[in-house]
Write a structure and sequence with these properties.
Its EC number is 1.14.11.16. InterPro entries: Asp/Arg/Pro-Hydrxlase (IPR007803), ASPH (IPR039038), IPNS-like_sf (IPR027443). This is Aspartate beta-hydroxylase. Belongs to the aspartyl/asparaginyl beta-hydroxylase family. The protein is α+β, with helices and mostly antiparallel strands and 465 residues long. The chain has three domains: 134 residues, Serine Threonine Protein Phosphatase 5, Tetratricopeptide repeat (Alpha Horseshoe), CATH 1.25.40; 198 residues, B-lactam Antibiotic, Isopenicillin N Synthase, Chain (Jelly Rolls, Sandwich), CATH 2.60.120; 59 residues, no CATH class. The chain has 14 helices and twelve strands. The strands form three sheets. Strands 1-8-5-10-3-2 form a six-stranded antiparallel beta sheet. The protein has a four-stranded antiparallel beta sheet with strand order 4-9-6-7, with no helix packed on it. A hairpin with a 4-residue loop joins strand 11 and strand 12. Helix 5 runs antiparallel to helix 6 and helix 6 runs antiparallel to helix 7. The two termini are 36 Å apart.
Amino acid sequence: MEISQSIGCWWRGLQLWYNDQDYMQAIDAWEEAMSFISWANDELFVDMSLKNSAIQERKYLTLDGDAALLSELSPLLLFLAGCYLDAQEYQKARVTLRRCLALTSFDAERDSTTNKRDLFHRTVRECIFCVEEDPECLEPWVEARELVQYAIEVNQQLEQERLGEISEANSVPWSDPWQRPGFLYPIKNQDSVYDRLRHPSWCRLLEEKWGDIRNEFDRLIHRPGGARTLSTSPRHWPAVGSGEHRGGAGAHDGSVVAPGGDWREVVIFGSGENPRLAPCTSELLEQTCPDAVSLARQGGGEIVFSVLASGTHIRPHCGSTNLRLTAHLGLVIPENDEDHKRCSIRVADQWLDWEEGKIIVFDDSFEHEVINERSTLRGVLLLRFWHPNLPKEERGIALQKALDAKSDDELQRYSPPSPSNDGVMMLRAMEKSRCISCSRHGYSSIRLNTRSLTFECQCGQSIDS
């Protein structure tokens, strides 16, 4: 194998991407770069999970003695997989991530430096995203749990081999396969479900006022033009994931609704809010639940009336961060019938049932799903509130880190790495630095000097500081 040919194609792709903005031709060049490598035959991995196929790919490359040499290509493989995911070419993404996970896991075990471990963790996250987005993956939550468990096991093995030399900052970000949000902040003593003894004191106040909240909910359900019975979904409410829902901010949320389901919300506080729709409830929440209202106002959550129509299944998924907990106040809960059909929520491995006038509290960064198999709709008041084990003085910092991480993930989609592992160039691409001459920043300002294979600003200033 000639890895030098792959590196040459890598540089050519960078020229096409940064200088010519010819993104499709750049991807073609990177695909050519991978064609020089002797990978395992794809037929070996039919019906195999992404984690298990990566382990088999790694065995193949290790036996051939190529894994150490090929690990140099891992950053490009990860970027290329992201391109495929954006184009919804899931099979190509899966093959590329299989190879990337094989190499990054091997590399992380050889070299426990921050860069190697971070690349492995990023690869695991991208693998999770792949299986969750791929419509051909029948049980993506099962594969996602398997991937996180694999990452945990790799980390544990490293800690044992290196006698605990792995620092906390450099360790695997996950500790539980059930908990895999997009952003995971180090919070002590996290649980998936919180019993009533650990509920915030305002939970009892809301339960005492649940009748008033229910009356306001009923008025919203039955307003002119809306549903007249609880067996019909309120069509005048925005469907979760629609353009009307949360001002379009929750567009991705609808992807977890199984076909034929109907999930609708009215936002009281948070993105797309309208507190005037429920003035009594809004006033009560501002007086009694400042941790929920403040989180919503800072963009970290929302407070909504939520309805789930009969026959709706919200498939297993995880929330975006672990900075918050979620409370559900039962407002309209379908009665159980003779068929014992389910109207419940599963959080991790525990099923919970709602009761009218009662609150349940859970951490939605843990895997959860919701099912309403009964004949009428289910309605709750849903509140997100700051995690009680997150110190108040860290709230703003933690939320900003979550927002920055989301922004960084998006920018990395447009910022292909270089074979020289140019960290200064990546800082410019990720909008962490500006040109000292023209103040430009971001990936669109970068140009590759094809003679010296160094990077410059669009204005011609060298990117070296």
